[in-house]
Records
---
Amino acid sequence: MRHIISILMENEAGALSRVAGLFSARGYNIESLTVAPTDDSSLSRMTLVTSGTNEIVEQITKQLNKLVDVVKLVDMSESVHIEREMMLIKVRAVADQREEVKHLADIFRGRIIDVTEHLYTIELTGTGDKLDAFIQAVGSVPILEVVRSGSIGIARGEKALQV
Amino acid sequence: MELTGAEIFVHCLKDEGVEYLFGYPGGAVLHIYDELYKQEAVKHILVRHEQAATHAADGYARATGKPGVVLVTSGPGATNAVTGIATAYMDSIPLVVFTGQVPTSLIGNDAFQEVDAIGITRPCVKHNFLVKDVTKLAETIKKAFYIAMTGRPGPVVVDIPKDITAHRTTYSYPKKVSMRSYEPVVKGHAGQIKKAVAMMLHAKRPMMYTGGGVVLDNASKTLIDLVHTLGFPITNTLMGLGAYPATDKQFVGMLGMHGTYEANLAMHNCDVLIAVGARFDDRVTGNIEKFCPTAKIVHVDVDPASISKNVKVDVPIVGAVGNVLKEMLKQIKESGAKPDAAALKEWWKQITEWRAMDCLKYDHTGTVIKPQYVVESLYKVTKGDAYVTSDVGQHQMWAAQFYKFDKPRRWINSGGLGTMGFGLPAAMGVQLAFPNATVACVTGEGSIQMNIQELSTLRQYGLPVKIVNLNNRYLGMVRQWQEFFYQGRYAMSYMESLPDFVKLAESYGAVGMYIDKPQDVEGALKEAMKIRDRAVFLDFITDQQENVYPMIPAGAGQNEMILV
Ligand SMILES: Cc1ncc(C[n+]2csc(CCOP(=O)(O)OP(=O)(O)O)c2C)c(N)n1
C-alpha cells in the first residue's frame, strides 16, 4: 500500500542524506520526497511517499524515528488528510490543439503560465492521481516536459504535526 | 580565557573522564597531538593500524561498559577506522571516534588526505557530526558521548577540520545535554509488561532467549533473579554469553547456527518465548518460516526498530531491559502467582532428554590436539575467570561453546559483523582496562594475521595478553562450509606460507610457544598464565579436519541440526 509520511527534522546539514541513505541501505522504495524549511527555521519538513506491506512501512517509520535528527513524524495515510502535488507541463500545441489544451486545463483547474506560438506551459495542482489523469487526457498532444514536485500533505481538522 | 580547538578537545576528554584514547597521528590532527603531549590525564595508546584503534577501544568498552574513544587522522586514517566502527555498530558498542578532517576552506576540493568521513561512516554509525565552528566543539563532543552511551548504544563519529583545532573560543563543558530529537525510552509500558507476565505464568513450555542487550544494560543480576524465580530454561545468544551463568543448571547453552541441541530444540518446541535484548538475527533463527512455530512471543528491547523486524511478535515491550525485567519481577512477586509447576516439570524432563544427547562431545583420545580441548583446558587453567576475546571462524564458535562464561563482559567477540582481526586489538583494550586480569585471545592462524602488527603495541605497553592460536592451517570455517556444501572443493581456504609464530612473537619481544601434543596443552597454558610482563603467543597445532557441531545449515529450521 502507498503511504505518505511527514517528517519534522532538525534543519542540519546532511539530514536529508541520512533519510535517503536509510532508504537505499535498507532497500525501501521512495516514490517521491520533498523537503523545505518550515516557519521555524530550525526545522525542516520532509514529505516522503513510499509503498510496502504494513510490516515494511512499520519498519520504515521506526527506522526514521531512530535517526537522531528526526524530531517527529506521522504516517498521514493513517488518518484523514489532504494531499497535493504540483506539476508543470509543457506541451506542443498548434492549430486546433491550442483550444483543446486550454479547455482541458480549465477542466482540471490548471493555469497556463507560459505561451509561445507552438507551446503551452501549464501549472496544475492536485493529488497525484489528478495529475496522472491530466497527462492521460492530453492524449495525442505531444508532451515536451513534465516536472512534478512530489506530494505534500497535511492532516484535516485539529491535528497538526508540530514540536 | 580563550582556548584553541585542540585545547578544548583535550579538556572535553578530561571532563568526560576519558582514561584511554586509542589513536594514530597524522597531519589533520597534529594540533590535537601537540596538546595531548602536554598533559598526562588522558593516556594515548599508539596502535599500529587505525582498525586496531577502533577494536581496542571497542574491547575496552565491552569489558568496562564505558565508552571507547578513538582519534585518527583524515583520509586513510578515517577509512582504516571504518571496519572497527562498523563492527561496533553491529554489536551496539558505545564508541566515540574522532576523525581529523582537512581545513574547512578545502572541504570538497579533493584536498590531500580528504575523504567524506561523514558520508562514508553514515550507514555504520549511530550518528555523526562535522564540526564547522569551534564554538560548537565542546557541545558536539558532549552530545557524541551522550548519544553513544544512551538508548541502544553505538558508535558516534565526530569529524573535526584542522582549522577548527586552531580557532579559539571560551571553554565550558556542558553538564547535561537534552535533544528534542533524541529521547531514548527507559521504562517499559506497564500494561504490556502485565500482559507479558500473564503469558509467562500460563506457559507450559516457556523459553527465555536473551542477548547482548542484557550485557549492555548491565541487567545480568536482575535476569538471574527473574529466571530463578520462574524456573524457566534459558539460552543466550553469542552476544549474550555470560549474562546468565553458563554453569547454572537452568542454562541450556548458546542457541543458533552452532548452538546446542537442547537450546535449539527448546526454542523450536516452546509455547511462550521471552526474548530480551536480542534481535532475532538470521544466525539465531535459521529459516524464519520454521522459527518457533508454536510460540507466542514476548520481545523486550530498547530499540523499537528491533521489534517485529525479522519475526512478528505478540507482546512488544520497548524499554531498557533492566527496568523491564525488574518490573516483571516485581509484578510476579506482588501477584503471588506461580508458574505452572506440573507443566514445567514435564518440559524440563523433555529438555533433560535432549541434553543427554551431549551434542558438544568430541573424541580427544588421538595424538592430535583437538581445538575444543584447548578451549576446555583454557577454561580449567583460568578457573573460568578470564576475559576471552576472539576472532571469527571455528575457533570463535569453540570458544563460545566450551568456555563457560559465568559473568557478563567476559566474552568479547564480533558477533554481528564477524570481523576477522578483532581479537588481538580488542584484547589490548581489555588488558589496559584490567591490567591484573587474565586476558586471552582465542584466534586462528587466518584471523590473527589480519592485525598481527599489534604485537608491537602489546610490547610497547607491556600488555601480557595470552594469544591462543588454534592453528589448523585452514581458514577452518570456510573449509567446513566447502566440505559440507561444495563437495570438498577447498577453494582458497588453505593457509600456506605461515610464519613461524614462535619466532615472530619473539621478534616482538613476546614469549612464543609451539604445542603439538595433547599432553602438553595444559602445561603450556599454565606456564603462559605465569608470565605477567609480556605477551605470550601459544601456537597450538590442532586437528586440521575438525568441524564445529552442531550446525544448522543456512535455510534450515532450528530443529534441523547436523549433529556429527
Ligand atoms: C575480515 C573478514 N574477511 C573474511 C571473513 C570470512 N571468514 C569467516 S571465518 C573465516 C576463516 C577464519 O579462519 P581462521 O582465522 O584461521 O579460523 P578457523 O576458522 O580456522 O578457526 C573467513 C575467511 C571474515 N569473517 N572477516
---
Amino acid sequence: MQDVKDTSDPRASNKPGGEQQQQQAGGPPQPPQPNPGPSRQQALPYGIVGAGLKEVTRRVPEDEPPPLPENAKLKSIGKPVSRLDGIEKVTGKARYTFDVQLPGMLWAKWVASPHPHARIKSIDTSAAERYPGVRAIHIPERILSTAQLRDPKAEQGNRYPTVRYAGQPVAAVAADTPRAAEAAVKLIKVEYEPLPHVSQLEEAMKENAPRVFPGPTEQPATAGGGGAPPGLPQKGNVRGPDNKPRGMGPRGDVNKGLSESEVVIEAEYRTQVQTHVPMEPHGLVADWKDDGLTLYASTQFVTSVREDAAELFDLPKSKVRVISDFTGGGFGAKYGIGNYGLLAIHLSRKAGAPVRMILDRREEHVSGGNRPNSIQRLKLGAKRDGSLVALQVQAYGTGGVAGGAGVGFCHSTLYECPNVLVEQYDVFTNAGPCAAFRAPGQVQGIFALEQTIDELAERLKMDPLALRGKLDVSGTDDCLARAQERKVGAERAGWNKRRPAGSDKGPIKRGLGFAQSQWLYLVQPSTACEVRVSGDGSVEAFSSTQDIGTGTRTILAQVVAEEFGLRAEDIGSHIGDSRYPMGPASGGSRVTSSLTPAARNAAYRCARELAARLAPVFKANAENIVFADGKVMVKGKAGSAMPFREAVKKAGFEEISQRAERRDDYEGYLFKTPDMALSRHGIGGVQFAEVAVDTETGIVKVERVVAVHDCGRPINPKLTESQIYGGVIQGVSYALYEERHLDAASGQQLNANVDQYKILGSRETPRIEVILLEQLGAQSSTDARGVAEPANVATAAAVANAFYNATGKRIRTLPMTPANVLAALRG
Amino acid sequence: MAPPDDDSVPKPLLPQLSRRAFFKGAGASALSATLAPSAHAADPSPPVLGPEPAPLTLSINGRTVTVQADPATTLAELVRNHLGLTGTKIGCDRGACSACTVWLDGEVAASCMTLAFDARGRKVTTIEGLAKGEALHPVQRAFVENDAMQCGFCTPGMVMSCAALVDRNPKCTLDDVKQAVSGHLCRCGTYPNVFKATLAAAQGGGKAKGNT
Ligand code: FES
Ligand code: FES
C-alpha cells in the first residue's frame, strides 16, 4: 500500500480491495473496538526472541487457540521446510496462466496505438475479419488501469476511448493460431487524429503543456496500493497536493519549526521510472460458457479478478470462477482483469471459445505498470542535539496516465518530528499507467529521507546509527525491532570499522552505509480458511489466495500441520481458486499476516473436533487427546500412541470440516474495513551496504548487503530469506541500473525489452547476508507479519549512503549509472 | 548460454527458410547465434519449405515425434504449443532472458532463438526430460532443498543451465555458476540460492546435500 488514504468518496471506491473508510476531514478516526463477542484475558509472550521475551495480557476471542510459544518449541511452524510445490517448479510441471492450453483455445493479440495521444476517427476491421483463422475481433469501449475523468462528458462524442499513451490497446483479435492473430492485427486499419503530447515529468508540469486529460480526474486504488485520494485539485496535468499521507494531516507548523531550527538540511532528489518486468507477463485465459465464466489469471488477487469480471460483465459472482495455480511474479502490478482480461473475456464471449491473451515483453513494459519517478524537495530542520524540529517535503512524480506517484508515508511515521508537511503531486504524462510496485512510494521516499538524515548526522558530527537511535522512538513494535536490528546489523556489517567519507586514495573508493526500512503491518480481515479431515486421515486446507512466489502453499500447510502434529508435506494445501474461502491479496505484505491466523484457527477447531471423535477410540476425554509427531495419543500415556491415519480411520467418519476467519488483532487496529486493516505497529528492517565506486568510469558495484529484518513470527525462515534476497536484489537493481527511457518526440519507450532495460543479473548480485528477528507481538493466533516490501524499501538508500561514505559526495539522482555518478562526483 | 558470436566461419544462410528471428529484427549477435547450430544440420540442397506447415520429425526427451509446423516455428513454440511441454518458458522471445533454455545434444540453447527445423537430427532435452522418471537430477533436488526459486517462472531455464554445468564440470566454482546463469533473468532475485544449490549439487557428486 502506498499511502493509506482517504477514499471514502464513492467515485474512488470501485475497487473493493482499495476502499478505506475514513472521514475526509477531522483527523484519524476512532479505532474500532476489536473482536466483539465472548473473550478471555490471555497471557501471551511478547518481545524479540533472544532479546528479552516478556508476557503481556490481552483480550483474546474465546474461540481462538492458546498462544504459540516461540518457534524453537514448535515442530512445523518456524522450520525451514522446503517449498511444497518446489518439485513442480523444477520439473516444469507447475502450470502458470502462460501455460494454460484448453481445447479449442484461441490466441489473442491487440493493436497498440503508435501515437502517445490521439483521437481515433475510425477503425476498419473488415480485412482482419476475412483473414483465415480469425474468430473474433473486439474494440474496447473503455480502458482500464488509468485515471478516469471526473466528468465523463468532457469527452462526449468520441466514438472510441482517447489514446493517451503509445502502446494503449485499440482493438484485439482472437484467432486459431498465434501467427494468424499476429497477421490479422496488422490488417486492422485505424485512422488517428494525433493530439499534442507530453511524456516528460517537468515538461508536463508547465502551465502550457499539452493536457493528458481534458479535465480533472480520479484514480481508483487497487488492493495493491497506488491510486490517489479523491477530490484533489487538478491544474493542467498536476493533481494535488495530497498532504495527508497515511490519513494523517499535516502536523504542527513547518514554517515556524524551520525558523526555530538550528540546522537546516535542504536538498532535491530524483528517482526514475522502473518497470515491474515480472517474468510471466500479465495475462488471462477466458473461457466464456453459457453457464459461467472461467478465468485463468496470472494475478496477485484472485478475488479482484472475480470482482472486476462480475462488475464489468454484469455477472453474479457465482458465475465467475478464477483459477490461479501459479503466478510468475507480480510485484504489485497484477490486480484485477486489466485491459488484456477485458479483451479476452469479450473475445471469448464473441467466439464461443476460450481465449488466451497474454502480453508480450514489449507490451508488458509499456502497459503492464511501473513505479513512478519523483522529484523530491526536502527541508529538514533540527536542533544541535539531533532532535528534529521540522520536515517539509514537496514531491512531484508521474505515473503516466495513472495517479499514485507519491513518495510514501515515512516522513510522518519513521522519526519523531513535531512539524511535518508533505505535499505530493501526481503529474499526468502520455505514458503507460503506473501500478503499485513493492512498497509503492516508500522506496522513493526513503531514498531521499534516509540520505537527508545521514546528511544531518554528518553536519552534526554524529554517528548515523546513533542519530537513528535518538529519533526512532515511537515505541511501536517495528521501532523496537529496528533498535535491535541496528545493533545486530552493525556488528555483522563491521560498522565500527567504518572509515570517514572518501578515505580511499585511489580511483576505486569503497564505503559502508546503512538505511532503515519501514512498512505497514496490514491485515485483510475478510480472510477465511477451511480445514478438512477425511475419514482416511487426509488433512487439507483451502484458501482462494494465490502464490506469486512467496511460498503461500507451504506456510499454509505448516500452520495446519502444527495443530495435527503432522509434517507440512502431509497436508493437502489448496489455493488459487475463487471457490475456496476468501484469501488475502498478495500485496501490501499481507498474505502471511492474514492467512496464517485464519488457518490456525480453522485447524485448531478441526483438530478439537477430531479429538472429540477420537475420544471414544482412545477411551479418554477429548481434552486429553493430543496430536504429535504424526501420532495421536492420550496426554501423558506414550503407550497409547497410534499413527495419525490409523487412528482417524478408527473414528469412522467420512469428513469433518471447519472454517475460521482472521480475527482482529488483539490490540485492535488504527482502522479497518472488510478488505484492509492497518495496525498502529509496522514492519521493517535495517540494511547495510558496502559499495565500490570507480571514480574514473562511474561504475558502482554493490559488494555486500547485510539485511536485518523483522516480520513478526517467521513461519518459514528459508522462504522468508528468499524474499529478503529478492527485495535486496530488486533494490540494488533499482539503485544502479533500471530506468525506463521514453523518447520525448514520439512518446515511445526506447528500451521496452530485457536486453536494453538493464536488470541486475548473476554477476552483479552482491553477497547478501540475511538476519531475521523473531518478534512476537501478541496480536494474533500466529503473530506472523509480512516481509516482502520492507526488504525492498531500504536498499537504494543504503547504497546511496554507502556511496557517500565511499566518495564524500552525495548521489541524489537514481539510477547510479556512470553518467549520474560522474555528475555527482563533479558536483 | 548461446554459442559465442563467432563470425570467422562462414555459415550458410538457408534463405529458403522463413527466418522469423531475422524479420523480427533480432540483433546481429543473436542472429549469428541462431545460425551457428544450423550449419551442421543443413542439407547441401534442402527442399524449399514454407510458408505452409510441413512435417517435421524431432527427438525430444528420448522420444521421436513428428509434427506439422510452419518453418518459422521456433523450438520454444514447438515444444510448448505443438507438444504441450509447457515447462519451457518464453520470457522475452528474443534471446535475452534464457527462460526458454533447453539442451541440444546436451548443450544449452535458447529455444526461442532456435528454429524447430534446425533441431532436426539433434537430441532435444527439455525440463520435462531432465529427471529420470521419479529420480530428479541432482540440480533439481538441490534447487528444491535450497529454495532456488520463488515464483518459479525462470526456474526451468535456470535448472537446465545449472544441470548442464554440473554434468560438464562437477568441480565448478561460484564463478562458473555465475557465468552459467549470467544470461538468465530472475526478477524475483533467486540468484544467491541458485548459486548455493548448484554448488551443493556439484559437491554432492550427483547426490545433492540440502540444508533441511
Ligand atoms: S525467451 Fe528465449 S531467451 Fe528469453
Ligand atoms: S523465480 Fe521468479 S523470476 Fe526467477
